[in-house]
Amino acid sequence: MTSSRVRREDRGELYVGGPGGPLRWGTGRTGRTGGTFTSGDRGGPGGPLRRGTGEDRGDLYGGGPGRTGGTFTLGGTGEPGGPGKAADVLPGSHWDLLERREAKLPPHQADIVIVGGGVVGWSVAYWLKQKERVRGGVKVVVVEKDPTYSQASTVLSAGGIRQQFSLPENIRLSLASADFMRNINDHLGVADQDPVDLQFNHSGYLFLASERAAHIMEENYSTQRNAGAKVSLLSPTQLKEKFPWLNTDDVALASYGLENEGWFDPWTLLNAFRRKAMSMGVIQSCGEVIGSSRRSCSLSLSRRDFFKTTNHSLRIQSVKVQMPNSLEYQPVECAIVVNAAGAFSNKLAQILGIGSGPKGTFAGIPLPVEPRKRFVYVFHCPDGPGLDTPFLVDYSGVYFRREGLGGNYIAGASPEEAEEPDTNDLEVDHQFFEEKIWPPLAHRVRAFEKLKVTSAWAGFYDYNTFDQNGIIGMHPLVNNMYFATGFSGHGLQHSPAVGRAVAELILDGNFKTLDLSELGFRRILAQEPMLERNIV
Amino acid sequence: MSAHLMSLHRCCQRSPLLLLVARRPWSSSSVSPPPPPPPLLPLHKRLLLFLTQQYYDVEMLLSFGSQLKRRGIQKKNVHYGYTHKFYGSDIAAAYYILSIKGGFRYVGQSDWFRADLRGKFKWDFLNYKNTPLEEVDMSHTVINYTGLGNLKEQQSLKTLSVRGCPEVDDWFLARLHMFQDSLEELDISHCPRITTGGLAALRNLKGLRRLDMSSLPGMSSPGLVVILLEEMLPQCQITATGYDHSLSQEEEEEEEETKKEQMQGPNPAWSTRYRVKSSTFD
């Protein structure tokens, strides 16, 4: 059982200009809609990868939309040198055989630099452009170090959305995000392009609780109901009646989502945000932030003598963006930096000067976000539960959900604190499945005693070691840096609402629709954790 | 500049008009003669060219148009709060259904109340106060997710038909859980926006006895989905006509193959070749 992800050439055929998730989501029909999301119509990798796609634009004349310069000819075949491949290879054409894109440096100056091109970063970019009052009012640059998204948490996630949290802020974020996804074409539809199809499976989440935790589940249920989530509690008999394939011996209570819960395709959401944001003028830059220049500014107040304490706050003046595979860099002067770097947020925060002060002061507290590796296994079980399989989360922490219609399922679990795998790479540990996931699965669903693992992958959680909840807001000392990170596994499902919240903070000065001030950085300085009990 | 040409290219792809706009860039001569001026085109082609150059304006007008249309649908599906407050939830639901040209039948009555084609209806339904609705027929109306909220308190709804409704999608089906105890018959045929993910939401309707899901254009593998649904809802009779269950997978592959050949070299006989190939499989 080797950990196999979809081969690169397969990916190239289905997903033009970038990888899909490790699974080919759905059938070839989906691949085609994925194929229209070209990685920026302003010059992605063109070339032979595009030729074979099912781009149903009837492109008979050999020039795909990726050819910069937009040359196209009358009547195709008769041209000297021919259209298509021959012209591309001859010198002077814009396409490069080895796809060495010229290093596209980011602009010298931008208003807002969003570091991190995952779903949270692009969501913030979209909402900033959505809320600007004047066309072209805000110049936004999104910096992403890996355009293939090989280590990004967004595309490697299982793609679920739920409202069954214990914190009201999280519940409201999920509800707002579900509202957004319901009307996604009103928000992210681009004229002249295909509508967005998230392939949302409305199958709900099912949380199982043992005797010990049943009272916590009941408290959570009332919080969820008050916040507006449509959840229902099920006793073991009701559970058995609803799901006859489930083993309910040691289950005391179950919580089942009726609406707005399920799973969807994260790659489609990411591309929808990106396509819409770029159509509104957000600049995408491929590079890594390696440094920044800051200056300290002390608050100048009228009563100078009162505030003698050194209240030096830092301001980021510019960030240095280094091009991939080269030493070339560009300092981008910016007014605001948004840290949406996910699992790598701490590294970025250190570059921007957070956590480097003396211990015991506010300046010495680092961003408590670190990458944690999580495995996802795909297995096939022909006798498994059918179309009504929810996203089942056992009380032992093991989860599984249906994938497609062919008897495939996705499973995973969070390891214990002591057994966290190392995060140097994304290699999959298959022993973990055999020891920690399969036994609880087989105990829970009898049919899973016979299963075959077909594929597996690993991804990072941007794990907030402090309290496993997102950090949204400004840093008190660096006063032009905003955080939108640390979601510990539920960043994807909160991304539309978080993007809107950060855009409100930046452009309106305060939260307008959802009050997320409890999730700010202040709680880390004050050491007041807002624990989320329902972390999967 | 390249963005401008990109937009030009994008718009021109859809039209049969392809123009020589830029010189081929691979000529190596440094001093080349200026291109000859293009011939004066007929009026409709000049109009199209003008429109492609005003791409952003055309995009804005199109988005205005679709926004207006959406706003019209939202207005029709608004929450009938005033009626709800003064007449109760049943009359509000009845009024809503009649306003968007649907039909309904009260519990215990045998005649239906409907609006005619022009949207006019009689006000007799006001006589039956506090009578819940038993059967609702919303076929070919613009009911959507928010509109379904007007029917929220109808706990004795037995039959619902949303046949041919363009705004009914998977989220609408997910919201039907509010009728999970009472709903017995559901007709969702000919709805273009329903896909497999939404049908998974019907798992909550354990009382469902008859389901009609014929001719759903958004379904990719209808035969398999019908079997899975029958397993999921064992007491439900499912009607699923209007699907082509025969060899649809192979025909799709044939289509992709011919498209690839078509990319590599335009062949005027491709259409006849495809037809010939498909007939050999019949």
Short structural summary:
Chain A contains 14 helices and 18 strands.
Features:
heterodimer; A: 536 residues; alpha/beta; D-Amino Acid Oxidase, Chain A, domain 2; FAD/NAD(P)-binding domain; 2 domains; 8-stranded mixed sheet; 14 helices; 18 strands; globular; disordered N terminus; B: 282 residues; 7-stranded mixed sheet; 11 helices
- Please tally the β strands of chain A and state the result: 18
Proper CATH architecture of the largest domain in chain A? 3-Layer(bba) Sandwich
* Termini Cα gap of chain B: 52 Å
Integer count of domains of chain A = 2
Would you write up a description of this structure?
The complex is a heterodimer of chains A (about 525) and B (about 280). Chain A has helices at about 10-15, 30-35, 50, 85-90, 120-130, 170-180, 185-190, 215-225, 235-240, 265-280, 345-350, 430-445, 490-510, 520-525; strands spanning about 110-115, 140-145, 160, 205-210, 230-235, 255, 260-265, 285, 290-300, 310-320, 330-340, 370-380, 390-395, 400-405, 410-415, 450-465, 470-475, 480-485. Chain A is an alpha/beta fold. Chain A folds into two domains: about 15-95 and about 370-465, D-Amino Acid Oxidase, Chain A, domain 2 (2-Layer Sandwich), CATH 3.30.9; about 100-160 and about 265-370 and about 465-535, FAD/NAD(P)-binding domain (3-Layer(bba) Sandwich), CATH 3.50.50.60. The longest helix of chain A is centred in the C-terminal third of the chain and has 18 residues, at about 490-510. Helices cover about 40% and strands about 10% of the residues of chain B. Chain B is built from eleven helices and seven strands. Chain B has helices at about 1-15, 45-55, 55-75, 80-85, 90-100, 145-150, 170-175, 195-200, 220-230, 250-265, 270-280; strands spanning about 105, 110-115, 135, 160, 185, 210, 235-240. In chain B, helix 10 (about 250-265) runs antiparallel to helix 11 (about 270-280). The chains are: A alpha/beta (about 525), B alpha/beta (about 280). At the A-B interface, loops of A face helix 1, helix 3, helix 7, helix 8 and helix 9 of B.
